[in-house]
Amino acid sequence: MLIISLTIIASLFYILATSHVLSRLFHQQGPSQKLTVILSTVAILAHMLLLVNSVFRADGQDLSIVNVSLLTCWVIVVSVTTVSLKFPATLLLPVVYGFAALLTIASLFIPHHILLQSIDVEIGLVTHISLSLLAYCVLIIATLYGVQFYFIDKRLKRKDLAIVYSHLPPLMVVERQLYQLLTLGTLLLTLALLSGFIFLDGMFAKEFIHKTVLSLIAWVMFATVTVGHLKQGWRGKPVVLAIMAAAFVLTLAYFGSRFVQEVILSKF
After folding, report:
1. With contact defined as beta carbons under 8 Å apart, do 21 and 97 qualify?
2. CA-wise closest residue to 215 among 239, 191, 231
3. pLDDT tens by residue, 177-212
4. Whole-angstrom Cα distance, residue 244 to residue 267?
5. Percent of the chain at pLDDT above 90?
6. DSSP state of 265
7. Half-sphere exposure of residue 165, counting CA atoms within 13 Å on the CB side?
8. CA separation for the pair 105, 93 (Å, rounded)
9. CA dihedral for 135, 137, 138, 140, sign (positive or negative)
10. Could you name the Gene Ontology cellular component terms for this entry (predicted)?
11. Fewest beta carbons less than 10 Å away: which of 24, 45, 182, 184?
12. Spatial CB neighbours of 264, under 8 Å, sequence gap ≥ 6
């Protein structure tokens, strides 16, 4: 009952925050930062309590794909919300809040599985998991910045005056933050993969090879775009599309097989 209540509270306030930001998306003064912070803070706190009560149970630690997804989503929401306090993120906020609302609601209907009865703390494993989570969150945020860049650039090329007088951030600021996040995320992903090869056995074992291969493909894509931008000045729509494609491959690597095993196959 507690988990259901926390889920409802989190999703409700995420929806309220999304609605408020969207209602003033193209307003010159933008959404009220104070109201946005209040609504999002309640949602974030409820989301955090939901995670604690979902993961740590009397019979073990539930590290199912649902809870891992909720944790990843929570980190992204907190990061984007924090960034929005200093830099305009009017387009990013409704995306992350809306997705968080959908994910928290969906968590009620997707089956959970207790995967571990106890957690053996190994420094190598903790390092790999932490770097992987950070890398994924940063690269997804970079992808969101890429989508924001593409949207603003497209509206400016159409000479849409609404975008000029809106509260949306300047295009050059978005682009600079995009490539800063992309560089940081690619570095973290590099370290995550290296830590996996150093500390873990069986990265190319049958049950993990698809994840390893997809992660390496995503790394090559991110690294190519990063180096291309730094050395050759790559930018614009093709780069944004490449970042989105790389983020999709990385998402498949992190969550694809677990979703099939824990959600789809569990129904048969």
Report:
1. yes
2. 191
3. 999 999 999 999 999 999 999 888 777 777 778 889
4. 31
5. 50
6. G
7. 5
8. 18
9. positive
10. plasma membrane
11. 45
12. none
Cβ count within 10 A of residue 23: 11
**Percent of the chain as helix, strand, coil, to the nearest 5:** 75, 0, 20
Cβ atoms of 242 and 221 within 8 Å: the answer is yes
pLDDT mean across residues, the chain = 86
Cα distances from 28 to residues 92, 159, 166, in angstroms, run 17, 17, 4
DSSP string, 228-250: IIIII---SHHHHHHHHHHHHHH
CA 150 vs CA 29, 147, 194: distances in Å: 22, 5, 32
The model's pTM is 0.85
Terminal Cα-to-Cα distance of the chain (whole angstroms): 27
pLDDT of residue 187: 97
Q: DSSP string covering 187-199, please?
A: HHHHHHHHHHHHH
> By C-alpha distance, which of 71, 78, 81, 180 is closest to 129?
71
Kindly report the backbone phi and psi dihedral angles of residue 211, in degrees, each rounded to the nearest multiple of 5, phi listed first: -65, -45
Whether 43 has a pLDDT exceeding 70, the answer reads: yes
C-beta of residue 134 within 8 angstroms of C-beta of residue 181: no
- What are the tens digits of pLDDT across the range 121-135? 577 778 888 899 999
